[in-house]
Amino acid sequence: SKFLCSAAALSVMPVLAQAACDGGERVIKFSHVTAVAGHPKGEMVAALAERFDEQFDGTMCMEVFANSTLFSDDKVLEALMLGDVQLAAPDVGKFDAYTQKLQVFNLPFLFDSTEAVQAFTETEQGEEILMSMEGSGIIGLGWIFNGMRQFSANRPLVEPRDAAGLKFRATTSEVTEAMIAALDATPQALAFAEVYGALQTGVVDGQENTWSNIYTGKFYEVQDGVTETNHQFLTYLIVTSPEFLDSLGDDHEAFTTLVDEVSAEYNARANAANEAARQAIIDNGGTVRELTDEQRAAWVEVMKPVWKRFEADIGTEVIEVASGGAD
Ligand code: LMR
């Protein structure tokens, strides 16, 4: 009957969604937008959930919603503040509505390696960023590293002028939009989940992302090629709410220690994950274009001047420290 049918459907869905949680356990939700296998963030979050379940077995369990299946990055921070999710790890370029401080990570050609990003996060200026959104109800717990972002388009990109006139998908980062505009190209803000379709249907001509995102998102399949511009380092901020941390009571410290341990372990593997993804793109028939030093210098010359526009918001001292200057 109709009744039995809908009752059956209702009883199946929660079971599927909470496979790892036992009855009576408090469910903690972690929402993110990327793939899991072969992805630095996806694998880190999966490992965190596994260890969380072991450590807090019987009292709490973690459910991970990857691939934007629960919230896209433009919705997840609101959901966090409303208590609909407890954890997320958006790209640092997605916090512009709450703080300007994180934009330092996105300045083109500032960070060139995981080591440089890590060194900055360990400075006083880097650590202060974790609590910079406390007033909005967002607390930074730590960082997940991905890797360097690369430009791709539906035609070969070698010189910066090759990008002129094209439309590129952008995150909601103002720095990224300015960087694309500096190429005389048009930025089009789109959620990560929309990128593949937008490239495939020609809504945008190109995009920029890390090897692991370009590979797991299959973007290379609908692009002429990927040019190794290494223009920005993609860092994620692991975020939660003060309410969630308070609710942990005595488990608060054990939880933050676990986050620190798992992120450190997976951050040390991020370079390898991106190198593997780069190679997998080539092995699957994608085109990877390397730039000569002279060609890359031309991209630096065009995009790096956007720093100036954000200096006042970010703070010149923060930029100096991030660039490897005085601490
Ligand atoms: C993007 O939207 O390009 C990335 O921030 C996606 C991600 O989370 O890696």
TrEMBL record:
Biological process per Gene Ontology, one example term? C4-dicarboxylate transport
Q: Name one GO cellular component term.
A: outer membrane-bounded periplasmic space
Tell me which UniProt keywords the record has, alphabetically: Periplasm, Signal, Transport
Q: What start and end residues bound the annotated signal peptide? A: 1-19
Q: Which Pfam families match?
A: DctP
The record's Gene3D superfamilies line, in alphabetical order, gives: Bacterial extracellular solute-binding protein, family 7
Q: Hydrolase: present as a keyword of the record?
A: no
Q: Which InterPro entries match?
A: DctP_fam (IPR018389), TRAP_DctP (IPR004682), TRAP_DctP_sf (IPR038404)
- Localization: Periplasm
Q: Does the entry feature the keyword Transport, yes or no?
A: yes
Note the superkingdom of the native organism.
Bacteria
The family note in this entry says:
Belongs to the bacterial solute-binding protein 7 family.
Q: Which PANTHER family match?
A: C4-DICARBOXYLATE-BINDING PROTEIN DCTB (PTHR33376:SF7), PTHR33376
Identification of the protein by name: C4-dicarboxylate-binding protein DctP
Q: Which organism is it from?
A: Alloyangia pacifica
Q: What is the lineage of its organism?
A: Bacteria, Pseudomonadati, Pseudomonadota, Alphaproteobacteria, Rhodobacterales
